[in-house]
Amino acid sequence: MQPHFTGTALITDDVPALAAFYAAILDADVEGGDPFARVMVPGAVLSFFSTRGMESMVPGSMATAASGGFTLEFQVTDVDARHERLLARDIEILKPPTTQPWGRRSVWLRDPDGNIVNLYQEV
């Protein structure tokens, strides 16, 4: 069987805050709490695990870990409306709504841990 991608986990020092941030921008609910929580969206699960919990499971695993070296992408219905909602919540916008040459309109932002998030729609 070909591997099937089901989601990713972000390792963080503040599980409740990061989970709440993603629940807010994705219109989803948080399941769980510290040291593990998740936000389920169609197609995948975004999990959050504490740095302390990860380090206890795999000692030394967090020594060279960093945030922001990747982009999480979520398809949305209306990028411009989503952008207005983000501004109303004082969320840092890295790039306002822009239509890319490859047919996506997207808004880029940064989560509280410094990870880049791309909310996009096909145009």
UniProtKB/TrEMBL annotation:
Signal peptide: none annotated. Coiled coil: none annotated. SUPFAM superfamilies: Glyoxalase/Bleomycin resistance protein/Dihydroxybiphenyl dioxygenase (SSF54593). It comes from the Bacteria. InterPro entries: Anthracycline_SecMetBiosynth, Glyas_Bleomycin-R_OHBP_Dase, Glyas_Fos-R_dOase_dom, VOC_core. Residues 4-122 form the VOC domain. PROSITE patterns: VOC (PS51819). PANTHER family: GB|AAF24581.1, GLYOXALASE-RELATED. This is VOC family protein.
